[in-house]
Amino acid sequence: MTATANGQWTGRAMAGEELFESLAHFMVVHNGQSPERAEQIADQAVAFVVTAATATDPMVPSDDVDLGLHALILHTNQYAALCERYAGRFLHHNPMPGGGARDPEKVAASARATKAAGLMVFDGLWIVDGTNLAQCDSDCGRPYGQA
Length: 147
Known about the structure:
The chain is mainly alpha-helical. The protein has helices at residues 11-15, 17-31, 35-52, 63-74, 76-87, 104-116; strands at 3-4, 121-122, 138-139, 142-143. A two-stranded antiparallel ribbon has the order 1-2. A two-stranded antiparallel ribbon has the order 3-4. Strand 3 (138-139) and strand 4 form a beta hairpin. It is globular, with a radius of gyration of 14 Å. 41% of the residues are buried.
């Protein structure tokens, strides 16, 4: 998997070691990911939230990044603190079952926004395979990053 090291920031650094390790472990145990892939997904989920916190355009995660985002949200105290630290507010996650597949262009734009924000991006995790029918890209009914 290719990583674009465009900046000094990683999701791992933004999350802190304790939260990051817990996220990766969660995805190994509950989602059957390999330890290496679980770490990459955890990194990108945190990078997504940090980028979405100040994004001016809608942010849409890939299926892989959304898997990590769901694990992150289950760490409720740490997720709330991360949102407060980077967004100044809680970023709600309201999945829309049956809302249709993710828009590949919006996912690609989100990966570019993450890179532009100075965060490392694992390009291979930002691919949309079209099998996910639930679009999980809203913050209180708005796309992530919209105030």
